[in-house]
Design a protein that fits this description.
488 residues; mainly alpha; Sodium/glucose cotransporter; Na/Glc_symporter_sf; pantothenate transmembrane transporter activity; Na/pantothenate_symporter
Length: 488
């Protein structure tokens, strides 16, 4: 094993463990276990909020899969990836204060909590919880695989051993520290991601003989590498612009991102997070995808895209520095996995168990169940990841699209439209999920666009039409209930 590379990774993991043990003190002493374990007692400052959103969004796809595709497609994929710059801005501007005010008013700890109180519907809660569990299990499996593959390529260990080390590393600090450990480790991991991106980008440009030389080499191999349309001109304007819906606007509907808009401390923290988050996401996305393209003239002939990042780091940097830089993709993967794990755990405990199985469970029982369920979930994902899927990034994006199609309108319209009701929300969720699965399976690029676009449009019109049609009926029911209560 290359200890010069591995030593910085071990130090990074020790720091992460330390944060987990530090956060566990808050969990053990808090008077409100659920608020602390699943929401960090709503105490996130601006910097931590920005970095936890960035780190949660930055994943195996951003640091491993994305640069791998950029290596194959050229600068066209960099342009497409830059549509993610607006992600943090949109999430906090659209959800921002309104979401925080309403979630505090409803005493919501999860996104499903908010939907439950807003729409007063058991079926909205059930469909939401099932969607989160199914889609985020897919996303978690993809991230678990990405983390294990990275450790495998860096250490020379076999895949199963690498997966075991990765799983134990994440489980320890998430299980004992809850959301606070996740958010603070995300902040540390976000800083590592920024520094790693900067160092590797500079080293890659130097190794390639400067940007002009790299561009000349790319043009000589295939002139399409430096156009916006991809290596085989398949990145059409319609597809690139529609991708913006998936990785830009639609991200407001991802539960693991939305829940962070419920956890900030005050308006100052929110405004600071909007600025920091937008700048950091832009820098990381631009840097990592440029590294993927610039790596092509330096290391031609890499057939597996997922290996581009580790190989270029080991090629252009001293071993000890490569170890530090490669902590960045490991940090990105861990920060996404930990957020998904705590979210699925909160969905099962808060949204399913406490709502429908044992609403009056004691605090001690809730605490033991939360820790146990989180550990069991991690173990199940570990078993799922033993037989890894090949197309890492597409599996991840499938989960993203499914959640966006399900939740975007129930969340946004629930915040800003008084006539939004449970019938509109249910119709929108069912149509959004089902049409997304149908399009993604049988007609992946309808009208040349990404398969998430039409389901989002269809679910919007379904939400509005059904809400308007049923508004009068709900108003009459409400009036009848008031009259009955007065007579009683």
């Amino acid at each position: 094993m290359n200890w010069a590379v591995i030593t910085p990774l071990i130090i990074f993991l020790v720091v992460i463990f330390f944060i987990g043990f530090w956060a566990s003190k808050y969990v053990n002493t808090s008077s409100n276990f659920l608020q602390e374990y699943f929401l960090g007692s709503r105490e996130l400052g601006g910097f931590v909020l920005a970095m936890t959103m960035t780190a949660t969004y930055g994943s195996a796809g951003s640091f491993i899969g994305g640069p791998g595709i950029a290596y194959t497609e050229g600068l066209g994929w960099v342009l497409l990836a830059m549509s993610q710059v607006a992600t943090g801005y949109f999430v906090l501007m659209i959800l921002g204060k309104k979401f925080a005010i309403m979630s505090r008013k409803y005493n919501s700890i999860t996104m499903v909590d908010f939907l439950k109180e807003r729409y007063k519907s058991k079926w909205v809660v059930i469909i939401s919880a099932v969607s989160i569990i199914i889609f985020l299990f897919s996303a978690m499996a993809a991230q678990w695989v990405g983390g294990a593959r990275l450790l495998e390529s860096l250490t020379g260990l076999n895949y199963t051993t690498a997966l075991f080390i990765f799983a134990v590393s994440v489980l320890v600090y998430v299980v004992i520290g809850g959301f606070r450990a996740v958010a603070v480790t995300d902040a540390v991991q976000g800083v590592v991601m920024v520094i790693g991106t900067l160092v590797l980008l500079i080293a890659t440009v130097i190794a390639g003989g400067g940007i002009s030389n790299i561009m000349a080499d790319l043009t000589a191999e295939n002139p399409n590498f430096i156009t916006p349309f991809g290596a085989d001109a398949s990145l059409t304007p319609a597809y690139v612009s529609s991708f913006w819906i998936l990785v830009g606007v639609g991200v407001v509907a991802l539960p693991q991102i939305a829940v962070r808009a419920m956890s900030y401390k005050n308006s100052k923290s929110l405004h600071r997070a909007i600025i920091i988050g937008t700048v950091v996401v832009g820098f990381i996305m631009l840097g990592m995808h440029l590294i993927g393209v610039f790596a092509r003239p330096i290391l031609p002939g890499i057939e597996v895209g997922d290996k581009v990042m580790p190989l270029i780091a080991l090629e252009v940097l001293p071993a000890w520095l490569a170890g530090i830089v490669l902590s960045a993709p490991l940090a990105a993967i861990m920060s996404t996995v930990d957020s998904l794990l705590i979210l699925v755990s909160s969905t099962i405990i808060k949204d399913v168990y406490l709502n429908y199985i044992e609403p009056k469970a004691s605090s001690d029982k809730i605490k033991k169940l939360s820790v146990s369920i989180t550990a069991v979930l991690g173990s199940i994902v570990f078993l799922m990841a033993l037989n890894p899927p090949d197309l890492l990034i597409w599996l991840n994006l499938f989960a993203f699209g499914g959640l966006e199609a399900a939740f975007i309108w129930p969340i946004v319209m629930g915040l800003y439209w008084d006539k939004a009701n449970k019938y509109g929300a249910l119709t929108s969720m069912v149509l959004g999920i089902s049409t997304y699965i149908l399009f993604d399976t049988y007609y992946p690029q309808p009208l040349g666009m990404h398969s998430v676009v039409l389901p989002i449009v269809i679910s919007f019109f379904a939400f509005v039409i059904v809400s308007i049609m049923t508004h009068k009926k709900l108003m009459n029911n409400s009036t009848d209930q008031v009259q009955r209560s007065v007579k009683a």
